[in-house]
Structure formats: structure tokens, C-alpha cells
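Next comes this protein.

***
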Amino acid sequence: ANEEGFVTIFTTGEKQSSVLKEWQAHDNAVFDIAWVPGANSLVTASGDQTARLWDVITGDLLGTFKGHQCSLKSVAFSKQERDGFYRQDSQQGVTVVLFCDENKLISSGAVDGIIKMWDLRKSYTAYYPNPLPLQAYPYPGSCTRKLGYSGLSLDSTGSRLSSNCTDDNIYMFNISGLKTTPVAVSSGHSNSSFYVKSSVSPDDQFLASGSSDHHAYIWKIPDPKQAPMMLQGHSQEVTSVAWCPTDFTKIASCSDDNTVRIWRLNRRPDGENLLNRDPNVVGWTLRKIQSPTRTPDPYSPVEVTPAKSPGSERAISLASPQPAACAPTGADLPLPSNTSAPSAKVSSPRMP
């Protein structure tokens, strides 16, 4: 989805990608989309303060959800169908919502630096007007001002929560226990907006995240202190990333350079001649040289969710960015599954 309100569905292949369907879902930016579990339909969340349900086969609008008084930044489904209305949280600028099971919802805000877990089985009446979270996870960093979160992702067990924070860290919490402090911290990327998201690999071994420095990053979850691998190839901020659920070596990344890229990760033999690299490869991996974590200016104004100005970072549309100067090195990446391809090979849709 994009800032003009269009939703595009691609068929992706090893050599090329093509547009399967495209339609204008809103007259405003679409900030998030979510597939309806087990159905050929999805929901779009937009800056026009509505969410809409679409049949992706016919392109028909099946329903519109109203009631919000601000832009919708996030949409999520529980595994079991659930209808109802819940009194709004007082959390300022809710940026992400995520179901951890059929009864619990997790939310994060843009300015209060708190992650909250809600028990949806509770009801609130006139006698209990203010909803109270089942658990709250305060900001664990060292910045003197509280910062917000731009993304939340769960592992396959639903017990480990990875949280993209705008202090350039990704905090991992064990939400199945009682402790509210992080069990791991991943650093090395840059997060200067509320659009950078992360994704956990289906085998729970790797964490991928977008970044404001035009790269995507991969950490090995059992060893979060190890410097991450960089996926180089985009030319603007990388926002959303997603692991393929059936092939752990494939990652999709979405960027403000107007491209969605499909990456094939494969361990490259150390002795391979890099000068003979496939000319179609426009991105590759490189171990990042770790630098000290950025400490924001404590006197900076409180961060709020910004609105990306149309075209501000998208004046130049690149179908294939120029290769970076760095060559790939031996990478501790997921092992290939059923097909083989060069390291971090990209199959990009052709852009007009």
C-alpha cells in the first residue's frame, strides 16, 4: 500500500514479479494492511480515519469501519473472530496494535514510551471508566525523554515481543512472564520515523527490521549482541519487512524508493570470486561495523507521529539502485531451503 491510497498485489517469482491487482482503497495514505485469516480479503487502515474491508478477488468493498478521530496507523486480526467495542485507551498516538492471543491485545504509543497488554475479556462501565492494562512495559532505555515505538512483532510461540523504538534499539520482552524489563536489545540500525517495522523469522532464529538509513538489518536472536547483517540495495528509508512463512531464506522489504524487493539469502562460499557477481544482483549482505548507540538530545521536543510529506523522500524513483561499494562477506544467515540463488539476490517489480 502507498501514500496515495493504492493497494497493489504482486505475484512474486525468482526472476520477475508482476502486478496481479491494483485499486485505490482510500483517498488518503494507507498506513497498514492485514489479511483476514483464512479468507481472500484484507483490511486497510488509512489516514482518512477509517478502515475498509476488501475482497481481493473481485476488488469489491465489503465494509467500512468508522469511529476513530485520528489517522489509523495499525490494524490486526485475532486468530479467532471477535466482534465488539472497547472503550478507547488514553495512550497518546497509538502507533501499533497486535494480538498475542485471542484474548490479549498489545498496543504501543508514539510519545509515552509504554507498551501495554490488554485483556479483552474485561468490560468497562460507567463505574470503571478508565481501562487498565493487564500489564505495562515502561520504556527501558537510557534517554532522558520517553520515546515511542514504531513496530511490534511476535515470535511463533507468542511469548517474545520485539519492539522497534525510536531510540534506534529493538527491545525484546518476554510477555509470558512477570518481568517488564527486556530480555534482549538489538542495535545497529537507525529509526528516525514511526514507519520502521520488524519481523521475526518463522523458525524464531532471526529478527529482520527496516531502517531509516536505507538498509534492512538481520540479527541472530540467540546472539543479539553480535553486529547485524545489512541488506544493501534500497535508496530510501526501508519501512516494512516480512519473512516468507514457507521459505526462511526469503525476505520482502518495502521502501520509500517506490520498490518492494524480494531478497534471497544464501551463504556465499568465502572463496567465490566476487568480481564474477551476477550483474542482475542489485543488493547484498555485509556485516555492520557496530557503533555506539545514539543518545538523543534530552532537550529536543517530544517526538510525535510525523506525517510523511508526499514526495519528500521520493523525488527520484529507482527501479534498480546502483550497487554499493561493499562486497558481501561470509554471513551467518539462514540456510537455504529448497532452491539456491546468489547471496541476497533481488527480484524487483518493474516500475513505470
Summary: The two ends are 16 Å apart (CA to CA).
